[in-house]
Amino acid sequence: MRHGIRSWGPGLLLVAPSIVAVAVFVYGLIGSTVNLSLTDRHSARPATRHVGFENYVNLFDDDRFLHSLRNLAVLTVVFVVGTIFFGLLWALLLEKGVSGEGIFRSVYLFPMAVSFVASGVVWRWLLNSAQGENAGGLNALFGILGVDFLQNQWWSNPTWGMAAMALPAIWQLSGYIMALFLAGFRGIPGELREAARIDGASEFQLYRHVIFPQLSPVALSALIIVGHMSMKMFDLIMAVSGAQFVTEVPAVYMWQTLLTNDYAKAAAIAIVLLVIVAVLVIPYLVQNARAERAR
Amino acid sequence: MSTGTALQAPAPLAPPRARSTPAKTAAARAVRYGLLLFFVVVVLIPVYVLVVTSFKPPAETGVSNAWSLPDAWTTESWSRAWEALSPSLWRTFSLAIPASIIAAFLGSLNGFVLSRWKFPYADLVFTLFLFGMFIPYQAVMIPLRQLTIDIGLPSGVPTLILAHVVYGIPICTLIFRGYYSTTIPADLIEAARVDGAGMIRTYTSIILPLSAPGFVVTLIWQFTSVWNDFLFAIFLSNTRNGPVTIALNALAGGQLTDYAASMAGALLASLPTLVVYILLGRYFISGLMAGSLKS
Q: What is the pTM of this model?
């Protein structure tokens, strides 16, 4: 970097519009939401006073909110484990190069190009909770295939329904994680494998001790990407179950609260969601910035 | 940005080892292809359901023949879906195209400065930008809606263009910054500076002519995410002035869902992004890679 403002000044000027936009629309509006969450604006009328953390305290006393947090936890665990499992499996199947690799990759990845709202239409049909005679969707397919014992209530199950809600998300995102892992595999120098083979490592040992350790940064990225997407999950749930209590997560609860004009409470839910995401993402961003500086 | 599709030359095959007999290798190959094909079928199941159901007459969409092909193929549902969605399809184009072009252009300027014409704390500014792409947008939505009303921006397309441009800045900047720092040598910029070229000259005569691939990746990413967006749309527009995801959700979300029409609608709403994916998949994947910060 050159020194002196004459040298770097124009650059700053060129980026200035974006800096202002991000400062106002990201950080300014977050500040404004925080401020709103500390007021008593529980209706369309303006706030009358600040109430401190009252809205937050109430939230953590609110069974409906705690229920949405539990749902979010189930969704996130199943979603993250599922996408990483299938993403890694598909990448492993493809990484040595098979004929038709391009076709397999394109098929596995195509759901990424579709919106959750569009795929939600078909998943809503597939995850039909009726069983036996009236079975529809996947339950009907299980009936046809003679595996009726697999029939279940899907997302209508009050305890583990959110695990079913993760299925469409896994379907949609696994290809992305496959692409990440595939790039990771291809980034490992061929000599490394060669050396391990010459040393007499078995195929299993090669993966266990040489290849997988090299992939841990990719696995971390995958975890962060899928994890933060899951925490923000909104579209899919709205499309598949249509904002029902049984599948409610904080993002949906926030929307439902806003519909009742309880602005302060909606803002508080949004900020809790932001904090949850930030706890996951900020360390990742910091580590990413450090790694870059070290390069 | 060399990841994802730029495959390295395959590592030379290891000399055959005693424990992998030809029969074993052939079996492993068969298992590998078997699994790959099995997953292709699984991933395409929702597509089968969408296509088949969309061509069924209403009488056949009941549960009894849920998985069978239509007895009488009809395009009735497609006309109903087209009727319900066509106004919003055009609105989505008029929203996604400008929002993509403006955000990509800003991303290009920012990416250039933040990689090759840095000012003090440029890396910090970049990291602060990045945080903006991970936040749950619920945390800005309430004051954002108020702000757009206060500045007199009409709800619907104009408001959504503003939102997608502003919140698209981080990812577009990320893609271009990564692209420039890998494809444009720092020496080239240095040489131009020594020759007395100013920043704007350097950008227009050196950077811009080399930017086409970066623009393709960014435009595809931005177009796809604007096209598929539901969250901004539901907060900042309605069925009369909103994009296709809102119209589709309204079509599919009723109590008595017309499954044939909503599946035809889901296909219609997905066509533009699917066409982009099929024609320019390579660039689509590059965008995905950048999105994980591992460019």
A: 0.90
